[in-house]
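User: Modeling request: complex.
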Amino acid sequence: MKLEGYVWKYGHDIDTDVIIPARYLNSTSPKELAIHCMEDLDTTFAKKVQIGDIIVAGKNFGCGSSREHAPLSIKAAGVSCVIAESFARIFYRNSINIGLPILESKEAAEDISEGDRLEIELETGLIHNLTKKVTYQATPFPEFMQELIKVGGLIPYTKRSIVNA
Amino acid sequence: MGMTLAEKILANGAGLTEVKPNQLIKVKTDVVLGNDITAPVAINEFNKLGVKDVFDKEKIMLVPDHFVPAKDIQSAQLSKQMRDFAREKEIKHYFEVGDMGIEHVLLPEKGLVLPGDIVIGADSHTCTYGALGAFATGVGSTDMAAAMATGETWFKVPESIKLHYHGKLNPYVGGKDLILHTIGQLGVDGARYMAMEFVGDTIRQLSMDNRFTMSNMAIEAGAKVGLIEPDEITLHYVRERAKRPYQLFLSDYDAKYAMEYEFDVTKIEPTVAFPHSPENTRPISEVGNVWIDQAVIGSCTNGRIEDLRAAAKVLSEGKVNSNVRLIIFPGTQSIYLQAMKEGLIEVFINAGAVVSTPTCGPCLGGHMGILAKGERAISTTNRNFVGRMGHPESEVYLSSPYVAAASAVLGRIASPEEVLGVIKKGEVA
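Assistant: Request completed. Predicted assembly structure:
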């Protein structure tokens, strides 16, 4: 699968409280959550984000709360992929579970600038920077996680294993 | 090769004789936990699985604690969705308002999490139970949903890091100061994906309440779990509460650790984390003049009886400053009752504090003490991210109950010594 979009660039340790503040957690609707995505960090994001856009950030993206509302709001805002130097572990799990594509690459996270246009091949983990004409290789997923990603997340995966059992 | 405490519990849960770091394993879950924010999302996902019943009605714990008593109509709907699900699926451990407490204070108190357990909770502070020698970690709602159906979850076996604490604690220094100091040294991703194991003579002397505080904040260093080997103190706590068998695991002498850290606790002062990260720590002597508008004492980090006793000790000596609002929330109903019996609630009210029903409310900026633009709070909670307790331009400073109470009295971040006097070495704090 190929993804293409413009980059929103953020720094290190972006926590789930700024991705979706708790004052909006009285809703479970991804659409409603998307309206407030990244609000306490960047008030322009939710208003201007386009379908397919890509978030690129530094280390420990998604640290803090386990709220799945964070990757849900990013996905519902239209973001096609999050690239970071590293991810906090619960956010990483949640993203794979709900089918939000994420990629880990220190080189990409450091080199990519705000507004760059990227093309991503999810299967190979190749990130092409169309603006800078550079390609980066993301860390490959373990086989089990590739399987989870392929079937669309943990619920389809679990459903399949329940049926098979 | 020997195994660490984390590896031993996981090997047991996976039915394997040995596991190694980075191995992907499937384990049985002894407890699956959710709250009024995360469980509704999990219930929606559970319903997509097409299974009728949960895997075990006694192993799922549902605790409404974040936005209850319901703060608005939408929150009331979420609580209702969880309540209806609990009734329909006959979940044994659903805790209604009046019976509930803050989940991570409540479950150990009720003996529902025990040493050797594998616990997943759709709340990041599930790592609190590591203090009992349980492998307990936070997950998202979808993981909770799958585990409610299957009683299993997958883990990547984490590398373990060992943190040694040596020496006698200084007056007014406790588990909160140790963990804040540690996060200040390691950074908020210093233990990312890893199992922290707290060891040493200082830890062996620490009470369960102080141990829970330390394990609670392991996630603030990015860790998967924050473990303490069970000992006599653990057993004393667990024995009167447990209603089912449990297993005690200890690290092998030749277990392999990715990193080891040493802390001489005689050098650790009461510690404060400045905005907007738990790693921005400073010893109280280097805090300077920081005026506050609000002080909050409670939460899954510091809402236990010893925390309330510490606050009461300070507030017996001074009233809340006229520029400060002090909000105290006991962790559970039984802690609230115990505090009443000991006269602590009377001390709080006479000092000018408000005492709230148990709730996560103010900690995450939910309700019961939201900050306005430009306001500043000192809080015994666990996070001080941008907007954590209210307006994105408000500030949160993290500390122990001693420091928060002293700050409430003096109107600025203060050492408990400024209210209670200096204690010389050898005297009892």
